[in-house]
Design goal:
The chain is α/β, with parallel strands linked by helices and about 230 residues long. The protein is about 40% helix and about 25% strand. Strands 2, 3, 4, 5, 6, 7 and 8 form a 7-stranded mixed β-sheet that branches. A 3-stranded antiparallel β-sheet has the order 1-9-10. GO terms for molecular function: endonuclease activity.
Length: about 230
């Protein structure tokens, strides 16, 4: 029986086939669900929103990284943080820790452009930010990181990738994370995201999974499933 194995997960040829470009402005005003993975104050933090439009799931990510740590990581891990920052793909904050106030402000700006229904957030080390975002008017939902919470949305993400139902626009930061993410399997083949090395960054894909997790349990999504697939009678 396979259990607790780390298995490379996303077939990159299928991921790259979902890279059709789009403008974020096309999604303004549409409902979306988001995931927020703050991971560690010294590493990348990721906010990823998903939108359902024309039968596809569109992905809009935001990333933050502390500048001091990014410079060190670029040298040690060969990850082009500075290039990404110069291209506007990742926000680099001064110092060696993530400024949660910057993340909060950016999410509020995002919320002015897009209709954020819910934000799924990792419970770990985010109590204050959760309270602040809730105070800003967002529906913030704690999202567990174990098999029970992560398996269904992880499998839905996998299905969307394989069937070509995802549109991520080829975002280089998200692609780098998709290329290294692994999954753990339990004894009944539930899955959850994992990384094979402590230097690998997978935060964006974890946030994407949380966003999908909130989307697939939403009343709107459930109604859509019944309309398109009908009611399953056993």
């Amino acid at each position: 029986i396979r259990t607790q194995q780390d298995v490379r997960w996303i077939p990159m040829e299928a991921w790259d086939a979902c890279d059709e470009a789009f403008e974020e402005a096309e999604l303004e005003g549409l409902a979306c669900f988001a995931g927020l993975d703050m991971s560690s104050t010294r590493d990348i933090s990721a906010f990823v929103a998903v939108f359902r439009k024309d039968g596809k799931v569109y992905v809009v990510p935001r990333f933050w990284v502390p500048k001091d740590n990014a410079i060190k990581r670029e040298r040690s891990d060969k990850i082009p943080y500075l290039t990404w920052a110069n291209q506007g793909l990742i926000k680099m904050a001064a110092g060696n820790v993530i400024d949660y106030d910057v993340v909060r402000a950016d999410i509020n700006e995002f919320g002015k452009r897009f209709n954020i229904k819910e934000i799924g957030i990792d419970r770990w080390n985010t109590a204050q930010l959760t309270t602040q975002l809730a105070g800003d008017g967002f529906e913030v939902v704690p999202f567990g990181q174990g098999f029970a919470s992560m398996s269904a949305p992880s499998k839905e993400l996998e299905r969307l990738i394989i069937e070509g139902g995802l549109r991520h626009g080829g975002h280089p930061v998200l692609r780098s994370m998709a290329s290294v993410i692994a999954v753990k399997l339990d004894e009944v083949e539930n899955i959850k995201p994992s990384k094979k090395s402590s230097t690998e960054r997978i935060d964006g894909v974890v946030a994407l999974i949380m966003a999908i997790g909130r989307m697939i349990v939403s009343p709107e999504e459930q109604a859509s499933v019944y309309e398109t697939r009908g009611v399953l009678v056993v």
